[in-house]
Sequence to fold (246 residues):
Amino acid sequence: MSLSIIGNWKSNGSIKSNESWILEFKNYFNDSEISNLAICPPFIFIDQMFNLASGLGLKIGSQDVDSSSGARTGAISVEACIDVGCCFSLIGHSERRELFHESNIDLRQKVIAAQERGLQVVFCIGEPKEQHIAATTNEFLEEQIINSLSDLELTDGFTIAYEPIWAIGSGLVPNNDDIYKVHSFISDKLKSRYGGKAKKIKILYGGSVNKKNASSILSIDYVDGALVGGASLKFSDFRAILDFCN
Ligand code: PGA
Fold:
């Protein structure tokens, strides 16, 4: 399975800085074969990025999506995501769960809405520091998976992003053995629920991936790629991660 890299820009970027990012990406694209590379800009910049990146093999995703449309001020519908060219959406990023109080049940509704309309899902799970310290990570993740995904058939392209909350933006990263154990645990859970189909579900790692640790993290068994926040904002940093994959 080829590695997938997704840059999550969060609430960063500007019309001008996005243009510079794409300019650097274009130079890189000329001498590299790109596959399975995506960025999630803030929704307001998606159209700009979609146009700038046209023909460059860069996929565009949304950082979040709503489970419905209509009278929901400020929300972004699945239809709107698809309309502006997103082929997938992140769902359940820990910042959405914490800052916007999205529950496992809310996220389940989002997954259903996205899948029904053909928008691929990158579903984020991850444990807070207390669970990591108490060594109850597996139980915590299993609950997130069961409460949001149980009984759902997962459509093509469904991806899990494992992001320990304490590793996000902190510079702290679990050791390789811990990442291996958690990813193989998630893989086993998916296999027991989805059988042979589980093989197609990629499991990405996210949380302080950077140009120094990417090659080591991306070499771990059961790690099918990375969800990269801070290190995707400057193309020079992101490039070093992409170099490892191409
Ligand atoms: P980070 O963010 O790479 O800056 O830790 C990852 C994420 O939140 O997806």
In short: The domain at 4-65+75-245 is CATH 3.20.20.70 (TIM Barrel). The chain has one domain: 4-65+75-245. The two ends are 13 Å apart (CA to CA).
